[in-house]
Amino acid sequence: MSCEHDHDMATASSVVPKVKLFGAPYSTCTSRVIMCLMEKQVDYDLQVVDIAKTQDHKKPEFLAMQPFGMIPVLQDKDIQVFESRAIVRYIARKHEGHGTPLYGTSEKDRAMVEQWLEVEAQNYNPAIAPAVWHLVHAPLFGQQGDPAIAATSLQKLEKVLDVYEGVLSKSKYLAGDFFSLADLSHIPFTHYLINDGGKAQLISAGDRKQGCSVCNMMSLKVVKTYDLQKFRVNVGDVVAQLDPEGRASDGRLIVDSISRVIPKRPCSGFQ
Amino acid sequence: MSCEHDHDMATASSVVPKVKLFGAPYSTCTSRVIMCLMEKQVDYDLQVVDIAKTQDHKKPEFLAMQPFGMIPVLQDKDIQVFESRAIVRYIARKHEGHGTPLYGTSEKDRAMVEQWLEVEAQNYNPAIAPAVWHLVHAPLFGQQGDPAIAATSLQKLEKVLDVYEGVLSKSKYLAGDFFSLADLSHIPFTHYLINDGGKAQLISAGDRKQGCSVCNMMSLKVVKTYDLQKFRVNVGDVVAQLDPEGRASDGRLIVDSISRVIPKRPCSGFQ
Fold first, then answer.
1. DSSP 8-state symbol, A18
2. CATH code matching the domain that covers A19-100, chosen among 2.40.110.10, 3.40.30.10, 3.30.10.20, 3.90.1230.10
3. pLDDT-based confidence at B153, cuts 50/70/90?
4. Domain locations in chain A?
5. What is the least distance, in Å, from the CA of B37 to any CA of chain A?
6. Cβ contact, residue pair A114, B167, below 8 Å
7. Cβ–Cβ of A107/B79 closer than 8 Å?
8. Which residue on chain A is closest to B82 by alpha carbon?
9. What CA–CA distance (Å, rounded) separates A36 from A263?
10. What's B107-229's CATH class?
């Protein structure tokens, strides 16, 4: 299935075969890849995989592409890659001279991007993911979130943010004074926590000395580029589509607005 | 502090400044980096950080290098990187034309290496790490391991190995028919589980149809290159050095043999 983004780009790049992205727009890992494709101005077809109602990710044809039965998967001619952080590395490397320089401009920049991308995967993600599940996603999927697990998760997250605060007092973004793959990779979970989990104060100026720097990294660039407010509304659409068994729909209706880039707007929604 | 490996290489590369690796030889993450340095034939100084007795990784001078207080850290002239998987990527990229081609030889190879390196970080490591802690490391550090947590961990690991079995029925190693950064990254935890945790059957031909392939990946190459049997004995040295409070020593005595490359030998110890 094509998304609106594809139609916008069709004239400019109709001779270049589009990459195919198999995923779900409400999935944080799919969002990570979509954001990377947008930063690198790569035209794509989003092939929606229903991971809720029809459980397409556990069917043989999907397992042949991704043996763990997880989204997303990228197909670029004869190269097929899974694991979102492997996919964004592939995209950022292949399109190095195009769009945002997500690896920076020097070998040192690249080393720092890889370092903070790993910190996201090993420190930030394990801390934030349980909070987002128990505060945001579990209720969406008709399950009961556990506030105690969410609270423990947020305590761990605070410790990671303490370190970020120190780093961001010295540079604008995590890997230096440039927006990189590392910052981008933090966005999907952070977005859900601050917009849908009601925890905006965690990264706002109110709670943190370097709140403004954290805000720069997590929201200013993001709110400017991606319509996360719209994204939030679309999470509401997912809720509205819950079937009688409490399972989410395949998300087809919300594909269009997620992949639409909107004009810049100020970083006020997060303060 | 220098290690034996450094002395071996001193004549050939005395004009090239050595990289410094801050870590502990019994740490799985430090081992990952040491193995990569050896595969790429990069001369290094191991600066032992005592993470047990004197807790050097929590002291201000170390936190200035690694704000999370974790080992290892690599220092290569003006570039300083932490997070073991970021360090090995940096080494493999910088020394691309030297030693083992750990990213393979094509863009497709590289995409597959990144994919399986992420699978190691996101699927394999979370499954195996609790088992290794509760079966091997907790007792070494004077703590009581929990057999129930180890059992749950091993059940998760079995599911990951089920997928590996399918992959390794089609290619010799995870990313294709070449030993890569992805295979290398699996070694430290796997080594502890099969040699010190008594779980060799998990990846041996006895339990698994593709046991021989798994064995190829996990042990043949490894046993050929790194003296893991020696490494195992050295874990015993750590135990012997436990002080009255049950804390491990700084590991200085076991540095030399870990960084020594021994001649080839057959893959019989794992069957």
1. P
2. 3.40.30.10
3. very high
4. 19-100, 107-229
5. 16
6. no
7. yes
8. A115
9. 18
10. mainly alpha
